[in-house]
Amino acid sequence: MTNIQNLNNNQLEEEFALINPQQELTESEKNIIKQLPEVIFAINDYFTSLNSLYLKKAEELFADFSKNDLSIEANPNLNEDITQEINSNTQRLANSFKSSIEVGKKMEIEKKQNSELVQKNRQLEVENYHKEVRIRQLEQQLGGISADFALTLALSISHKIKNNPQAVAQEIIKITDCPNLEYTITEQGYINFSFPTNYYQHFFAETLAQKGQNLQGEKKDIRVDIEYVSANPTGYLHLAHFRHAAIGNTLANVYQFCGYQVVREYYVNDRGGQINSLVGSIFVLYHQLQGITVSYPGKTEYREVLELILTQIRHDLAQCGIKFDIWFSETSLYEKKQHLDLIRELQAKNLIYSQEGATFFRSSLGGDDKDRVIIKQDSDYTYFFSDILYHQDKLKRADTIINVMGADHHGYISRIKSACQLLGYKPETIQIILVQMVDLLTEGGQKERFSKRAGNTIDLEEALQYMDMNQLKFFLLEKEPNQPLSINNELLKENQEKTRLYYIQYAHARCHQIFQKAQERGIDKISSNIDLLKGQNERKIFNLLIRFSLVLENIVEENKPHHLIHYLYELTQVWQVYYQNSVILETENPELTSQKLLLVKNIQIILKLGLNLMGIEAPERMQKI
């Protein structure tokens, strides 16, 4: 079929007519065709139903062939040659139908997955649109009307029903039924909402009284397992691993703050070829240093080597303030005989078969391009089998599992999800965050990928020579996870004083200094009212402060902690403008001062909360650049 997305309207009508040959298109159908996404869904649904019908018919025919007994004994009137020919043709047709059924089932699974993915993406787009509309701020006044957020829904509806946008906006107001919201409707149909002063006043008073703990989400009966870092213990951690650590740890903190039951997990790959090579090489080297010549041992039980490396990994992570609830050993899965239970389950579900001395998993049934080996010819288990085994173990312990992994695991996502789906788990319970590579810029400006094998890495100790721990975490979190990060020593030096972190921390320290000065002057009382704070810059700060919880929800939805940095920096900028254009401490106006101190304290609380969620300190004093 022609690529739908490249067709114009006339071609779309022709294409649509091909799948509906019995009917002539009505004007209504032609109008529908102009909406490209609807055509795609219609065609997808058509072929899904067609494929299901084909499968049903093929299975019926195959069942009929299976019932026929074309042996000579059952058909004495047929001679042997004719019977053999009939049997041969029948068997060929039966095999063809059987093959078609398997292919058809695979197509049906893929169609279902693709359809669900498209529907999910479509739903997410709608949700993101409405979320953006809900929280979108008006940076400037629209027609002289200031607002906290705006709704544009009336415009799109009015175009569809051919009605006045203002009238539609009025109907929307009736439906929403939010008496506590102040609103105005523009000529174009924009509904500009403003929170009443008492809403902000209550929010600020609660945040002050509970020191921001009122912003935590309600406790949820949802277990979330977040696995991150999980570097092979074949060497020490380098800066690319610490990017994973910073992202995973911040996500865990945010999820926990939002009310989820969070488990932080490190998966120790302590078996397999790389581990055997490392331990075996050290075994040989150790004996050589003793003047003893030994042959390479292959598999060896000198596990103390791994423990030495893991001890250093734990130390480096603890130095970053990162601790795990579970250090899960891959070897433990086999020591507990869990692999045998999984093999029996796969056999019972007819998901494995033997071929040329190896055991294959029928991953193609889940949409993979081929079946995958899980037990090699030498009877050793593959990495893929261990991954299935480990994910099954996690899915028994958690409602949602999140893996923070390198971008080179892109092909791994669909494979592990489909494998778990074939075992009866919902694929959406597995969320995988791909973190782009960290490149090392050489003196000639060329990029080199960090690699323990190549030996071109920057470890924690070296990185901390150029920036402190807070700056390092911020630097690793500042970009979206799917964006690559390129660094060199000079860049590390520059970030020591030019990162946005400095200004965020400085904004927090400024709040502390204001209260120190207020205390010295005897005007440090904090009001519970804000009725005197009527300026536009104050209103911007109001709106930014109440958005904090929405930002955290957005991080949970997208698994992208860099949103928190952008939010804190935006709050810092608005606070800086307000500070430069306003006198905070006015001795002659103590009530106004006390109300401004309520605002300053809320800024301080939320800046500290945001920094702490990233594992970054919020200092009370800093040196000015």
Automatic annotation (TrEMBL):
A Pfam family per the record: DALR_1
Chain coiled-coil ranges: 107-141
InterPro entries on file: Arg-tRNA-ligase (IPR001278), Arg-tRNA-synth_N (IPR005148), Arg-tRNA-synth_N_sf (IPR036695), ArgRS_core (IPR035684), DALR_anticod-bd (IPR008909), Rossmann-like_a/b/a_fold (IPR014729), tRNAsynth_Ia_anticodon-bd (IPR009080)
Keyword ATP-binding: yes
EC numbers, comma separated: 6.1.1.19
Gene3D superfamilies tied to this protein: Arginyl tRNA synthetase N-terminal domain, HUPs, Isoleucyl-tRNA Synthetase, Domain 1
Keywords on record: Aminoacyl-tRNA synthetase, ATP-binding, Coiled coil, Ligase, Nucleotide-binding, Protein biosynthesis
Residues making up the signal peptide according to the UniProt record: none
Aminoacyl-tRNA synthetase found in the keyword field: yes
DALR anticodon binding domain span: 504-622
Catalytic reaction list: tRNA(Arg) + L-arginine + ATP = L-arginyl-tRNA(Arg) + AMP + diphosphate
Protein family membership: Belongs to the class-I aminoacyl-tRNA synthetase family.
Name assigned to this protein: arginine--tRNA ligase
UniProt organism field: Gigaspora margarita
Source species taxonomy: Eukaryota, Fungi, Fungi incertae sedis, Mucoromycota, Glomeromycotina
